[in-house]
Amino acid sequence: GLVRRAGSAAKTVFAVAGVLALGSTALDFQLEQERKEAALRHSSADNNKNADDEDASSAAKAKKEHQRILVLPFYRMKVVEKKKANALSSLAPQLIDRLGSDADSAIQIEAHDLVDIIHSAAEDPDIVGLYGVFGHGGGFSAGGYGHIEEIRNAIRVFNESHRVHREPNLEHKALILPRNGDAKPTYAYADNFGDQKEYFLASAFTHIHLQPQGDLSLYGVGMSVPFIRSALDKYGVIAHVFKHGKFKNAANSLTETGFTRAHRENTTAIVRSINQSICESIVQSRSLPDSFNQRMWQRIFKYGSLTAVNAKELGLVDYTPKIDPLDAILQANENDEAMKKAKEKWGKDIDVGSLKGTKTISLQDYKSKLVKNKKYDERKWLWHEKLKFLAEKSSATTQLLSLFQYNAPHYNIDEDEYSAKKYKSEKEKIAVVHVTGSIMSPMAKKVTDTLRKIKKDDDIKAVVLRVDSSGGSVIASEAVYQECKDMPKPIVCSFSNMAASGGYYLSAHCDRIFALPTTITGSIGVFGVKFDATGLARDYGVSFEHIGTGEFSAANSLFQPMTPKVEAAFKRKMNETYDSFKAIVASGRNLSLKEVEARAQGRVWTGREALDQSLVDELGGLDKAISYAKVHHTKTGNAEVEYWPKPPSVTSVVSKLMGGESDTDASGANTMMYR
Asked: The whole model's pTM is what?
């Protein structure tokens, strides 16, 4: 009797737990219904094209009511590779975003975040168009041309959202895999295009509008290099530079008063390669005629700023409305009469009819919606596991769940979604690890600590190393490189704006390397600097004497002159480090040392050049690298993507705010050698 009563009590407990689970699940029911209704609206509108006029009109009206145009305020946008974390942003990231959501404040957004938002909008049936606002010019900034290329690729995915693909191919070949729905237009408006970067981004939009008094400034690509040798001489400071590689030019700013022949040669090649990539992309995006060749571009660069009329005549912009036409387009979409009046008013100044929708949604609001949907999906699958557990433990709970049509095995999950295993029942993950900025001890420690944590996570099947760095300390670069070599999981590398010197060093052994055409990479070489400020001290009546136990005890002192033995030691170390760098590249890229030497000497390459030199494997952005990792290194091909290092927990943030331990690493503060 006691056993029977205990069993009955257990069943009751599980049944009650099932009721509570249902109650919690019901809190998400409204959002699920909204999502299903959205899908049904679009399905009904498409299927009712041949139905009764009244039914078709009703379905179309319901669909139209929920259509939105996503507005991207580029005029106040700063695109970065990785935001600097702080305690407040870790505690309330969405709150920080909302605080910066008024019409005048700057928006800082990570490149991959903006790309993901545009990709989500491409798949969202309620988002019917993109509208990019560039304002008076000069307000948009990005980490480099690499970021702009990735955003352009995302916009092209949106343009081609009626087709199925992960990322548009870089040769611009037509992809003819059909998907339900029509192509989605993208509109860009500017009062003035202040520089080439802004127009390069805008040229990916299907419709470009420029205010009649606005200019289009296409001046070409340029790089300015400061040379401070004369200033150092004036103040009695000597920069002793030790380098290996005639193209290892970074330290020339300290030792030269202008470009050396090798420095000029390499910089000119980089500028021309980037410029060529930009011009070719604009020609392809704008479908410009064959007459838009190199000679035509040179004429444009020499001409200076183009007027709106000039730009339209050349096919670089489509329309020249006197004011931002967005409000007029929204009003025109209200009904047929409004559309007729708009066409009469605007004439050929704008394409009124292509961009559908009567309402807009801001970037911040749409991002919040996506975050809300993601959290909902996570909760939904968490409750699926709980319902499954409860049902297996209690037949009473199983019967109770069946009353709500929550039947095994999918329970609260839609059958089609469950069958497709959309949310990775295999629990496979891809970890994206950022290597951003100068590679010094604090950053290297964060990266190596992150990689060690990833090793212990069996759900992570592959790592995507995202590099945006011009290099740094030899020791720090070596630490990250060795940790990558020790990683038992495959590593795919994605180069952002720059992956040069130490940034390339730590990536050379990755299973596959992706770069963008304008990525700055290579710089396989090494240099170090020792400053001698004894002349400066002497001018101010200060002298130094040194007593040490060895000949090199003052080698790194600012106030001890260079000696022949110290110079010989530094040169020897440079040679050893350069040989080690070349050996790493030879092994990682399957090249002979002779082949590496031909690509090394500190020479910098663009991504498109690096592909020809076998220094990278494929052209593409982070999205393409992630797709490669999913396809080649997971069972399902649809793994969850996590970005590392993960944001700090609330507990750790509060601890730091209360004066606890920090992550500051003061070691290696006087490292002399750099890649």
From this structure: 0.87
